Amino acid sequence: MPPGPQGWTPPPPPDPRRLPTHLQPALPIEERDYYAFWRAPRLRWWKPILAALMATFLFLAVSTVLQFIGWTIDGVDLSVLLEGTIPPVGPGFFLANNLSLALCIPIAMVTAWACVQQRPRWLSSVVGGLRWGWLGKLLVFLVPLWVVVIGGSHLLGPLDDVRLRDHTLVMVVGILLTTPLQAAGEEYLVRGLLGRIVGSWFRAPVIGFVASTVVTAAVFMAMHGAGDPWLNAFYVVFAAVGSWLTWRTGGLEAAIAIHAVHNTVSMALLPFVDFSEMFNREAGVGDATVLIPMTLLLVGAGVVEYLARRSPRTVRSAPGRAQWDALTAPRPGFGWGPPQPGGPR
Question: Does any domain span residue 46?
């Protein structure tokens, strides 16, 4: 820093970590990408660990309660659980599972707010909120693509068992109302919260992104509990695409759009068939036909990339900079300015 008048040199700016904790910015003071967004002056090494523990506890508590409610609605004899038998899936359990994942949105937001003191809106994107216009634009392009490919594959498959059933109306309404929220909940929990937990440990943004992608892909795959290699490959590709799009666009909108569209369209026939074994993912359930949705995910990512290039998004920001500049601004009369002529020496 160059010397000021009469040889006076202003003092160097203070180290953010030497300030009282309540004065340290919780938001980044240097431009950060989505996964490095927790790297702010108030971050401490133990806060990401606390966030992981808190989110895990809340999710397990909520999902366990809702699962038992769902089984009760379906009239399942819960004694079969003591025998290690997984009850068949009914409308009650399906909707309870969707709601438990949808509640991951507030779980992830509250966890981030409590543990790193960043308000909930900052989990959606680096600009501090879900960019609804961008999300809507993505849906306009992605919905027709999924309807043609996945819908076409449904029509080309066996339709002998497709008919109106007792659960049809409940499932149609339930899928339309809860599946988009279920998909968004998984993105907020895995790509959002967990991605930032991992990314906060690395100084280099690219390394943080790669580490977040690897960890979130492994967790996303494990969450689905599949024993089939084809299905696990699909979940890994799904997670990698979501991670890339989040990093590339600076927010969760693209990952939410693809996830919500894929899940909703893929369940189009569910209300008209017997879906009691829909969560059966043991070895042998999947086959090479999984390559169709895997390819579709990559095509969808290409569409998002094209749209992002045509209309660039903010992918890095430093919203804590204004607070930091205000804290470090010179305070005349308190030793922050040059000596005045005739004043005390």
Answer: yes
Nearest to 245 by CA among 284, 216, 281, 204: 216
Q: What is the domain range of residue 182?
A: 25-317
> Quick check: is 78 in a domain?
yes
Count of other CB atoms within 10 angstroms of residue 86: 10
**Residue 317 is encoded by which pair of tokens?**
């920001």
pLDDT tens track of the chain, all 345 residues? 555 555 556 556 666 667 777 788 999 999 999 999 999 999 999 999 999 999 999 999 999 999 999 999 999 888 777 777 778 899 999 999 999 999 999 999 999 999 999 999 999 999 999 999 999 999 999 999 999 999 888 888 778 789 999 999 999 999 999 999 999 999 999 999 999 999 999 999 999 999 999 999 999 999 999 999 999 999 999 999 999 999 999 999 999 999 999 999 999 999 999 999 998 888 988 999 999 999 999 999 999 999 999 999 999 999 999 988 887 776 655 554 455 554 444
Tell me if 4 is assigned to some domain: no
Domain tally, the chain: 1
